[in-house]
Amino acid sequence: MSLYTDYLAEIETRKEQGLNPKPIDDGALTAELIEQIKDTGNEHREASLNFFIYNTLPGTTSAAGVKAAFLKEIILGQAEVAEITPEFAFELLSHMKGGPSVDVLIDLALGDDAAIAASAAGVLKTQVFLYDADMARLKEALDDGSAVAKEILESYAKAEFFTDLPEVDEEIKVITYIAGIGDISTDLLSPGNQAHSRADRELHGKCMISPEAQAEIEAMKAAHPDKRVMLIAEKGTMGVGSSRMSGVNNVALWTGKQASPYVPFVNYAPVVAGTNGISPIFLTTVGVTGGIGIDLKNWVKKTDADGNVVEDENGDAVLEEAYSVATGTVLTINTKDKKLYDETGTKELVDISSSFTPQKVEFMKAGGSYAVVFGKKLQTFACEALGLPLESAFAPSKEINVEGQGLTAVEKIFNRNALGVKTDKPLHAGSDVRVKVNIVGSQDTTGLMTMQELEAMAATVVSPSVDGAYQSGCHTASVWDLKAQANTPRLMKFMNDFGVVTGRDPKGVYHPMTDVIHKVLNDITVDDRAVIVGGDSHTRMSKGVAFGADSGTVALALATGEASMPIPESVKVTFKGQMADHMDFRDVVHATQAQMLDQHGDNVFQGRVIEVHIGTLLADQAFTFTDWTAEMKAKASVCISNDETLIGSLELAKSRIQIMIDKGMEHENGTLARLLDLADKRIAEIKSGEVPALTPDADAKYFAEVVVDLDQIVEPMIADPDVNNDDVSKRYTHDTIRPISFYKAEKKVDLGFVGSCMVHKGDIKIVAQMLRNLEAAKGKVEFKAPLVVTAPTYNIIDELKEEGDWEILQKYSGFEFDDAAPKTTARTEYENILYLERPGCNLCMGNQEKAAKGDTVLATSTRLFQGRVVADLPEKKGESLLGSTPVVVLSAILGRTPTLEEYKTAVEGIDLTKFAPPLVKPIDTKSVHF
C-alpha cells in the first residue's frame, strides 16, 4: 500500500463523517502526488493535481517543503505541468506563508535569470513571514551589490506588503445570531471533550454549538450573501473561561472569510459580540484572526425617577433592553464612525470605538495580528539594512505617562520588559507595549494547534530571548486512548525539536510526565518581574504576571520571544481581620469574589489585573488565588510577596527544577540549568537589598480597590452553577458564592473530586489526614459517594510517599493509576470508593473522564460550565459545585453536603492552609505541607 492509497482510504472514511479530504502535511505523500502529476497517463493524476494545488498545508510542514521545491522546478523549466504555469507557480508560492517558500523565492530572486528574478522579487515584496536567516541572505546580497535585493528591501522599508493592502470596509452589514443567553464559555464554541480534533479544523468545526445552530447559520449566510453573521452572547460576555483559538477558528469557519483559495478550512475575520463585551483572553484571539469583537451594551440597568438602580427581590439590578439584537436582526458596523447603527445605517445604537483602535484596525487590514508583528520587524530590518530612517507604516504605539503618578505592580513589570519604547518616562495603563516574554507554556489539547501555527509562520526554533518554555501532557493524562497515542508523541517530538522542555520524552529516555502545566510554569518562573504566556486561561502564576493566550499567541511568543498588548488597569485587593482556624484558604478565594460583588455591585475584576497583596503565602498556596482569577474574569493577576516569602518560593522552585533535571528532562539547549542560575541571581538581589520583592508605588492609581474582611468568612464557601435559576443569564457564572449552610445538609453529592491546578501538596495531605481522623473515630471510613483524587504532579506523590501519606490513600483506594499500564478507555461508572488517578487535569477538563450524566459533583476544580465536568440528563441537569478540599472529602463520605458542625469536627486538628494579611514583620507561614 502506498501513502496515496492510504490517503484514499482515509478519504472514504471521512466521507462517512461528512468530511472533505484532510489537508496534507506529509512531505512523502506530497512527493507521491508529484510523481503521479508528472505521469500524464496516471489514473490519479487529476486528483493528485487538485490535492497538490488546493489541499497541502503551507509554512514549514514537510509537505510545504516538497511543494515549494517542485514549484521551483516548474519556474526554472526543469519540470513541466500544463496546469501549473510558472506564473501560477509564483501565485502558489505567494500563498505559502514563509519557510521553504520564502527560501525558494529568495533563491529565484537572487538567481541569474533576470525575468524570473523580477517575478520572484514581486512576490517577495508581498511576504512578511521572514526570519533572521532570510533577512541575512537579503542583507548579504545587498552588500554584494544586488540590485534586486536593494529593490526588495526598499519595498520592505516602505512596508508595501501592508500599505498596498485594501483598507477595511467603511460599512459592514451584519446579521445577528444569538449563540446563547448569559456568559458564553468557549466550551460552547470548542468543547473540551472534542479537544483531540482541534488540529483537524473541518472535523473540529462540526462541534461548534450544535448541528442545528450550524444549519441555521448556513441558512442565514445563503439568505444574506452580502452580510456577515455576528455571533452574540445575549445578556452576557462572549468567550469566558478560555482563550481557545479553536473556538475562534470555529466561528471563523462558519461565519468568516477564507484566507486563501489554496489553503482549506483556514478562515479569518469573524465578528463576535456580547452584551458585556468579549472576555479579554478571547478578544486577543479574535485579533489574531483579524476579527471584530464588539461590546453591545444592549441591556442596561433600569433606574427610577431619581436615578437609582431598580433591584429585584434578590437584590440584583433589573435590566432593560436598550435595543434588540434578536437573531436575524440586520445591523450596520461603521468602521469610520466607530459606531453600531441599525439596518439603515442612520440610527446610532452604541459607540464601539474600543473595537476599532488603530492597532485593531491594522489587524483587520492585515488579516490578523501575526502579519502586523512580523511586518513591523521586517520594516525595521529593511530600514536598518539600507541606512534609512524608519518611518513606520503602522499606527504609533500609545505611550501614556501621567506626571506625578506612581506605578502599579503590573505597570512596573511592563516597564521593565518593554521593547521599542520611544519615551524615557514610565508608562501607565492604556499604553500599547511590546514586551519580552520570559516563560512560555504550551499544553497538549492546544499544543497541536500551536504546532500548526509555528509551521504556518515558518518558525523552526524557540527564540533565544525566552528564558524557559514547557510543553505539558496534562490535559490528556487521564486516558492513554488511541487519540492520545496518535497525537501526544507527535506533539512532544515537534516541541522538543523546536527547543522546548517536554513533559514526555520523544525518545523514551525518561518516564512520561503528565504534571499539570500551571504547576510546572509556576515552578519554572523564577522572577517576580517576569512576563509569562501560556496556552490556557489558568496561566496565572503567583510570581510575575501571566497571561492565558490562544495557541497562536503562544506560537508567536515561542518564535519571537515577544507579545504585544496594552498595559492593563489594576484592581488592588488587600485583606483585614483574622482567618478562622477551621477555614481553608480556598474559602478566602471564594469570599473575595463575593465581597467584591457586594462592595462594587459590578465585577470590577473583569478585563483587569488583580493585584493581590497576599505575600505571606508561598508560591504553591498563593497560586490558589491567582489561579481562580480566571474565574473572576480578570485579565491576569500579580501577587505581591514579602521578601522572605519570595525567597522561600524561589528556593522551592529551584528544588523542583533540579528534580526535573534529575529525571532527565533537561533540554540539550540547557534551559533548566539557566533557570537555576536566574533563580540564584534573583535570590541574591533580594538578600542584598539591591532589587527587593516587587511592590507597587504608594501613589499608584487603581481602577478600584477591594478589601476582603477575613472576619466575615465563618463557614465554607461554595461556587454554585445555580443551574435552575429562572434567569438563564445567571446560570454557570462563577459569581454565585454560597455558604455551606445554604444547603442545610440536604444537598445530595454524587461524586467528589480533589484535583486540578487549584490544589497543591497540602490538599492531598488534607485528604490523608481526614481519612486518619475518621478512621480513628469510627474504625473504618466508608464512602457514600465516589471520591476521585488526582495529585497535580509526580513530585507531590513522591513526597507524599516519603512522608507516609500515600499509604493511607492506597488503603482506601479501589483504583490506583499504573503508568506501566495506563487506562485506554474512559471511566463511565463509579463505585463508592476512592480513586487515585494519574497526575494531570482529569475531571476538570471533561475531555476524557467525566462524571455520570445528571450527577451533582462537588469538586476543587475551576470549571462549573454546563457539560464540562458533567453532562445533563433530560430529567436532571448535571451540576458541578466548587469548594475546598475538606468540604469535598467530607461530602463524598457523607453523600451530601455537611452541616457546619460536622465540618468543624472533621477538620479539627488538621493543618489547613493558613493565611494572615501581611504585617510589617512577615509572619511565618511555612506550614508542615512544605
UniProtKB/TrEMBL annotation:
GO terms for molecular function: 2-methylisocitrate dehydratase activity; 4 iron, 4 sulfur cluster binding; aconitate hydratase activity; metal ion binding. Signal peptide: none annotated. GO terms for cellular component: cytosol. Keywords: Iron, Iron-sulfur, Lyase, Metal-binding. Residues 181-407 form the Aconitase B swivel domain. It comes from Pelagimonas phthalicica. It is an enzyme of class 4 (lyase). The keyword Nucleotide-binding does not apply. The keyword Lipid metabolism does not apply. Residues 425-895 form the Aconitase/3-isopropylmalate dehydratase large subunit alpha/beta/alpha domain. The lineage of its organism: Bacteria, Pseudomonadati, Pseudomonadota, Alphaproteobacteria, Rhodobacterales. GO terms for biological process: propionate catabolic process, 2-methylcitrate cycle; tricarboxylic acid cycle. Residues 6-162 form the Aconitase B HEAT-like domain. This is Aconitate hydratase 2. Its EC number is 4.2.1.3.
